[in-house]
Write a structure and sequence with these properties.
Helix content: 10-25%
Structural class: alpha+beta
Number of helices: 4
Radius of gyration: 22 Å
Distance between the termini: 61 Å
Length: 265
């Protein structure tokens, strides 16, 4: 039986971390941490060890040497493997909190008897599994420039790529074309898949694409965006932080455009 290795403790959307190095507590340290879990789950770590995921009370206080920090803030401060692990834990807790009762008959759910990651209704036997929301995000190029937009929700002058949820019955490519048309008014062509990233805010799967401008002038969706425009690859505004797939896709697009359009000095 693998040794329990890590303890991921959440207080709301905040995660308990070591104040010195932002590491997660080891289970051997639990004796010293006077915290009571309201619910717990187990995951398997990449190294074969187990991980205990717990939800703490909203009033829980961090022990000496530790503090609570939001998962979003940790994105640029811990390695990708640990962020992915913490993101998975956060999504499981969110799913568990939102499915305490059967969506069919309202009976309180119980964990799956065979250990599957599912909550089962003891009355009608309906099983509820963790929900993943697919989203598309796209880098659109026009000659030497890339389309970036500033969303209303951004509290700083940061620009990112157009993105949105996939609707029922859509292919991913159809979702890309629709979201772009709705938010910017333009049409795109040559839609190509790039990569994906689990995005635990709260339980999204980001599917990244590249595309080329085909036609149309920019007309922003004003209830979503403050601004959208094509920026030359070497004259970008502030963009999302490293660690996000938006940042990765923008940098990959900039690298391609620079090879094509950069002039030697």
């Amino acid at each position: 039986m693998p040794e329990l290795t890590l303890w991921l403790a959440f207080r709301g959307n905040e995660l308990l971390v070591n104040s010195d190095n932002l590491s997660f507590p080891r289970c051997a340290e639990l004796i010293e941490l006077d915290l009571v879990a309201q619910e717990s789950h187990r995951l398997v770590h990449d190294d074969g060890g187990n991980v205990v995921v717990v939800r703490l009370a909203d009033t829980a206080q961090a022990p000496e040497g530790y503090h609570f920090q939001s998962l979003r803030a940790l994105l640029t401060q811990i390695n990708q493997a640990h962020f992915s692990l913490a993101g998975t834990a956060a999504q499981i807790l969110e799913w568990s909190r939102n499915h305490r009762f059967c969506s069919r008959c309202g009976t309180a759910t119980v964990p799956h008897a065979q250990g599957e990651r599912a909550l089962v209704c003891p009355s009608c036997h309906f099983s509820q599994y963790p929900r993943i929301n697919p989203c598309v995000i796209v880098a659109i190029t026009k000659d030497d420039s890339i389309l970036l937009a500033r969303a209303l929700r951004f509290n700083r002058p940061m620009y990112s790529l157009l993105a949105g949820f996939v609707e029922a019955g859509e292919t991913l490519e159809q979702a890309v074309a629709r979201e772009v048309a709705e938010e910017s008014g333009i049409q795109v062509k040559n839609i190509r898949y790039y990569a994906s990233q689990s995005w635990p805010f709260p339980n999204n799967l980001m599917l990244a694409f590249s595309a080329e401008w085909a036609s149309g002038d920019i007309v922003i969706q004003e209830d979503e965006l403050l601004d959208a425009q094509f920026f030359r690859f070497d004259q970008l505004p502030e963009i999302p932080p490293s660690g996000s797939i938006a940042h990765q896709l923008i940098q990959a697009t900039v690298s391609e455009l620079s090879k094509k359009y950069a002039h030697p000095r």
